[in-house]
Amino acid sequence: MKRVFLILLICSSLSSIVNLVSAYNVPAIFTFGDSIFDAGNNHFNNNCTAQADFPPYGSSFFHRPTGRFTNGRIVADFISQFIGIDLQKPYLQARLEILNGSQRDYPSNGINFASAGSGVIPETNHDLGVTPIQEQLQQFQVLVEQNQINKSLVQKSLFLFESGSNDIFNYFLPFDPPKLNPKDYVQAMLTEVASYIDQIYKLGARRIALFSLGPVGCVPARALLPGAPVDRCYEKMNVMVQNYNNGLESLVKDIPIKHPGAVAVFGAVYDIVQRFRTIPIRYGFSDVTNACCGDGTLGGLMQCGKEGYKMCPNPNAFLFWDYFHPSEHTYKLISKALWAGKNFGIRPINLKTLANITSSIMGEG
């Protein structure tokens, strides 16, 4: 009798584990942003010169370049794996496959619209042929309005947003002086983000995650800017970043008030990364200053993979993979903090809790 009871208990426990594994109520992820999220859209854009579709990008995980601006996976990839769905294709790849007949429909696990080099200000890096947030949103809107994406799928999906680093970095470029003061410039950025939120809500988004910018003033590429310090972070830049991040968190707090049925979270990526920089050894880093792959001061004067670049032997020990972007190890740690971390890194709830919320609570159809 004891043996039968034990078997029943084990079966019950296994059933609970299986239910936990498959309990997430998120069938798809839709991602918008810049190079932190770009999974290869720029690679499929022949008019775009901001590219990472050459070695050694992708070398640590995919073992080939994928258009991601790191040595492996990015945050959207890790979150997909935590939820248990396939990695999302770049929108331009999915569109090409439908146009050439190799696929009949857009993927049901979501789409990645992010474009490296883009910003929330439409003019940011326009000369590089990147796709700003407004155009990314338009691409998504067309698919929803043409019923190429199921509207009930949209309501159950997770929406990830991260953009603004390029806008703020470009503010400090010497050859194109900004017309606005730092405060008004940040406000102009936040106005664009507020418009993005309103529009994705109208299109059916109900689970919305806005991620803060990391400490942009600490990227190795600051060595390219005249007058920027290289022995410490560029505080003027980080002050703008923090002001933008504060505004972003305020927008997140307003979402449930302005948009009934929506649940929003703020990912405090800045604070997460600053913790890595403060106690690097705890997180497996031996270098939180220089790029693993690049050349010149801080490894920040040349893009990884360009002629004459140098590469470190252990990318996982570096916070930065190239002159602008984190290593896969950094992305993995950030993703874990966003997925199951505490209030310090993501609030008011983490992504795991957001993914577990049932449709009935959110008023989804």
UniProtKB/TrEMBL annotation:
Single GO molecular function: hydrolase activity, acting on ester bonds
Leader sequence segment: 1-23
Database matches in Pfam families: Lipase_GDSL (PF00657)
Key words of the record: Hydrolase, Lipid degradation, Lipid metabolism, Signal
The keyword Transcription appears for this protein: no
InterPro entries tied to this protein: GDSL, GDSL_Est/Lipase, SGNH_hydro_sf, SGNH_plant_lipase-like
Any GO BP: lipid catabolic process
Domain of life, per lineage: Eukaryota
Record Gene3D superfamilies: SGNH hydrolase (3.40.50.1110)
Keyword match Signal: yes
Family: Belongs to the 'GDSL' lipolytic enzyme family.
Protein name: Lipase_GDSL domain-containing protein
